Amino acid sequence: MNEPQSHKVHPPLGATVWAGMCGRCPSCHKGKMFDGYLTLAPACNVCGLNYDFADSGDGPAIFVMLFTGFIIVGAALYVEAVYQPPYWVHALAWGTAALILPLLLLRSFKGVLIALQFRNKAEEGKLVSDR
């Protein structure tokens, strides 16, 4: 007879995403994930989770570029269609937004990807011959 396997209960997906957005530990949702703006702490200061597993790579930058581009291009097209301002207004408004918006979003996107990586136990792929 098969014995039931113990399954660790995950917190809701929304709580995991929120913890990542706030820069909190993906395990306890209380400790700090970051030491600096984008520098990961070595471990959680509350539960002690070691962040050596975390490797978000270029994922946050790609998502931020896509999201920012969508917002800025959509807003620029809307403003042009409705108000038709001079080109210098476009350059000033959207150039500033293109600098500030990614800086505001990058840390949150990185935190979310690391939290999801922890939740889903994601790791580097391995070949069958390497097992």
Structure, explained:
50% of the residues lie in helices and 0% in strands. It is mainly α. Helix 1 packs across helix 3 and helix 2 runs antiparallel to helix 3 (87-119). The longest helix has 33 residues, at 87-119. The radius of gyration is 20 Å and the shape is elongated. The two termini are 29 Å apart.
Q: Tell me the total number of β-strands.
A: 0
**Beta-strand content bin:** under 5%
Count of helical regions: 3
Distance between the termini: 29 Å
Overall morphology: elongated
For the biggest sheet, the summary is:
none
Radius of gyration: 20 Å
Instruction: Give the structural class.
Output: mainly alpha
List the helices and strands in order.
HHH
Task: Write down the overall mean pLDDT.
Answer: 91
Weakly predicted, low-confidence segments: 1-6
Q: How much helix, percentage-wise, in residues?
A: 40-55%
Short descriptors:
131 residues, mainly alpha, disordered N terminus
In short:
It is built from 3 helices and no strands.
Structural topology:
Blueprint: H1 13-21, H2 59-82, H3 87-119
